[in-house]
Amino acid sequence: MEAKEWRIEQERLDQVREKLKARMGELEPEVAGLHDQAAEIRRRFWEEVTVNTSSDEDFEETFYTIKQQAAVLSERERRHQLLTQQWRSLNRLFPSPYFGRVDFLEEGLNQSEQIYIGVSSFVDEDGLSFLVYDWRTPIASLYYDHSPGAASYVTPAGRIMGTMELKRQYQIQGGQIRHMFDASVTIGDELLQQMLAKGANSHMKSIVSTIQKEQNAIIRNDDSRLLIVQGAAGSGKTSAALQRVAYLLYKNRDSLKADQIVLFSPNPIFNSYVSSVLPELGEENMQQTTLQEYLEYWLGSSLRLEDPFDQIEYVLTAQSTPNYEARLQGMKYKASEAFLRALENYAQWLGREGMLFNGIRFRDRDLITAEQMRSHFYSYDPSLRLANRVDLLQKWLLKELSQLERKERKASWVEEELQYLDSEQYAEVFGELHKDREVFDIAEHYAVVYEKISKKRRGDEGDFDFAEREEDLLSQRIVKMSFKPLRQSVRKLSFIDVQGLYTQLFGDEAAYREKTNEAEIPVLWPEICKQTKAKLDRLELFYEDATPYLYLKELLEGVRTNTEIRHVFVDEGQDYSPFQYEYLKKLFPRARMTVLGDFGQAIFTQATKLQGDDSPLVRLYGESETNLIRLVRSYRSTREIVEFTKKLLTDGSEIVPFARSGPKPLLATIEGGEKRDARMLKDIAALKAEGFDSIAVITKTAAESRTAFESLRMIQGGEALQLITKETVAFEKGVMVIPVYLAKGIEFDAVLIYEASSQAYGRENDRKLLYTACTRAMHRLQLYTTSDWSPFVQPLPANLYEKAQ
Ligand SMILES: Nc1ncnc2c1ncn2[C@@H]1O[C@H](COP(=O)(O)OP(=O)(O)OP(=O)(O)O)[C@@H](O)[C@H]1O
């Protein structure tokens, strides 16, 4: 670019930075001043108000002064917050105020406007001229959606047409323009090249300066109830999702708060991996959770829940154990919409018969039996929903308990207990009674006055015998305390035998059919029943049973909904079952859903197809409310790695690599595990010497990870290796050994596949595992085997890889 142009741009940049600095300078004392003022008001809050409650007027005045003081304080605090936010965003802009510019000539005008785009807006002193536009403003979408020529953007008032005369990109560091490109067709391949060539990080980066057109469509999609993004590995799904959160928070800043958005992540490490993107963009993080965390919370501690990682570990390692097939069939069936309908029908059936309750026992006696509950339950209007009848039953039980409690006061054990009250308990009771004493005194006083006025003697002097009253109150209290847990458990609906009701479902085929109207029952149903029941008997629950179990619980107790949440994001969406989607839909009735995933990486048994006529996800809200965006360009890996990995899939032909080159994947056949391990460590050392500092040895299973880790660690140079397990919560850079399913969504400079033999990845199901593992690599991919190559590697054309010497 011409030196003159460069100089003009640097001068403008200097001017903008001057203005930023001046504005920050103005704000600083205000920010600090307001902070001090608020602190001072808080400190002197009670000095400023004189509390006087002697008369009604004084009391009223005191009340109003407190209110006024509180209002002043909250106004100062609000203003302080606002100014601090402004100050922070200026501060963020200062080192690099913008990354893009478009010159746009709007139709009907005769002068084009220069639009500079950065991570937030900055307006000149006149309050009108935008020196920098926030990347989320409508006009900024020009930069992402168009190349020079005819262009338009959408505003709330309609579409604005015009011509883009220039599109420029900058790399600015510490106030200096380092690079500047005029872009043509796509947003600067040059800039993107540079971004992608960088090393992997322990935290995901924001992609704000190089968002691609198809990603922008995801970020700014406003009109669908369900947005599905099916995108190849490394196509920027997670990146786009996080930018979308930032966009939504900006666009709806008056009505949407970060905690009204929830992201379901595949695992806890992923949470840590993506946690810095939004703060980097000046936004608060949304809520992040895993489905497992959610299920565990609502299922409580009565059953021990298997997690999805133990489930997949079983699927991958237990092929030779008995009844493996039945478990797999069970997993598939329990993940289906059919099973959800079966549970709904079962709930209907329970409305007519078959409810199971836990009787209430007290001191080894039946207080209220399950049978009594059942007959009460079925005496209610059968047209009422199950949950409403449960509600009525709960009310009845609480009333019944109150009556029983009253009767219980005369029981002999109460008297005994009275004798054994220890001093502490007694003191407590006495304290309580002391409060009652005042009531008692008033009553006594009233009785005396009443006697005088009415000139009638009191009927029974003993009514007000304090000693007797004291004993009464004491026994009342003792019984009340003992009944407290009973009431609590009724309030928690523990009288419903959910476990029994879920178990009851797994009877013989005829019974199951009768209860659920299910026509298609899995072939190995008897064995599935046996396994499910045996697990429940041990007070454990298979992962595939967790959502159905919770769903049944909610059909009985009333469906739990969260109406606060407005947006639900599901990352790695292919790993959720149709059943789980239906459940999420019910759980968040007021939320829009964004599902991002890749069926090419569907490694769990309960996978859901994200697109196509047979996709249950498309059926979830219906086609008219669903939008599908497909991403086929892969940004993470070099062209050579993408060409190699896409051939691992049967239908990967449409995946398009981004034009960034590197060495071809390396295949190393090494005889014997020991030699392989030594070779790997040598290769790791070489990669480190090349400057790569995020390196993963990826294994198929956690069991293999542990063995690999143990043996690699024994070799010189292997001491610094980290083992990543499902318990690992934070993602750090370095050299690590990790099973594929925990590496989902994450990336590394270099990936080494520990054992890519036919034994390890031989079954059709393993194809996607191997693909997922290989696609974690950004710059280098190396595969090792100690025997023959996996059948997915064998047929690959020899020009796609190098063979190691
Ligand atoms: N527009 C972009 N500009 C710069 N980098 C990008 C862009 N899109 C994607 N990337 C980079 O590509 C890599 C992959 O992105 P991301 O993890 O979001 O992909 P993904 O589709 O979620 O991948 P996977 O399904 O394999 O987990 C990241 O390093 C990301 O920063």
TrEMBL record:
Gene Ontology annotations for the cellular component aspect, listed alphabetically: cytosol
InterPro entries documented for this protein: DNA_helicase_UvrD/REP (IPR000212), HelD_bacillota (IPR048228), P-loop_NTPase (IPR027417), UvrD-like_ATP-bd (IPR014016), UvrD-like_helicase_C (IPR027785)
GO biological process, one term: recombinational repair
Keywords: ATP-binding, Helicase, Hydrolase, Nucleotide-binding
Molecular function per GO: 3'-5' DNA helicase activity; ATP binding; DNA binding; hydrolase activity
Keyword 4Fe-4S: no
One protein family per Pfam: UvrD_C_2
Occurrences of domain UvrD-like helicase ATP-binding (ranges): 210-638
Xref: SUPFAM superfamilies: P-loop containing nucleoside triphosphate hydrolases
Protein residues bound to ATP: 231-238
Protein name: Helicase
Lineage: Bacteria, Bacillati, Bacillota, Bacilli, Bacillales
